[in-house]
């Protein structure tokens, strides 16, 4: 096989992998039509991706490889996933915040992106259990004499997770003593059956405390989080007031979510 053919195969497999991750599975006959290649070529591509551990082959196609429910990627690893979607979600969610509000931001890369969008909202009080989120506000503090009031930031304390969230009894006690208008919650996964979930048991408890201390719960999560289930559930979809997501969410999934979540805000799209 020539170098050019090798390159084309790599590009084709990248497209297949993207489809598997975006749609939750692909069929051989769909890929042959879309990519204008033979069934045998697609099957070879799926074999190659399966050998690399990137997809799982099923009859007639392939599906994503299921991660263990205890797998917890670190902050840096999560930062490179869906960055454009996270930025869109962050901008849309930040638009929900009114000056003078008391809000909470949980740990996560999407809430981190959102923090950067909130720097110019006046008179905010921000409760967070995220070291990264607190750093955003700390590093953006106005210099003396600039005349702009920095947000008041309450960092809960606690034990640090791989995703740089502070959890455990210290964090839980701090959160339970507070009350905020809006909670912006990043999640590891969402599904109808498991609700909101995380692979970290201590983080699940702290997130549950955040939900119970909030007047309104807003989940900020891109479309790839749908159908992912972590080890521990900490809330149901019915406890979510609004889910801010991206345009990658399939229409049929939007309809399913709308049966449980009153507000579905698609960043760059329309509210459902």
Automatic annotation (TrEMBL):
The keyword Zinc-finger does not apply. The keyword Nucleotide-binding does not apply. It holds the Pfam family HTH_DeoR. It comes from the Bacteria. Keywords: DNA-binding, Transcription, Transcription regulation. InterPro entries: Carb_Metab_HTH_regulators, DeoR-like_C, DeoR_HTH, NagB/RpiA_transferase-like, Tscrpt_reg_HTH_DeoR_CS, WH-like_DNA-bd_sf, WH_DNA-bd_sf. It comes from Streptomyces omiyaensis. This is DeoR/GlpR family DNA-binding transcription regulator. Residues 9-64 form the HTH deoR-type domain. PANTHER family: AGA OPERON TRANSCRIPTIONAL REPRESSOR-RELATED (PTHR30363:SF44), HTH-TYPE TRANSCRIPTIONAL REGULATOR SRLR-RELATED (PTHR30363). One of its GO terms (molecular function) is DNA binding.
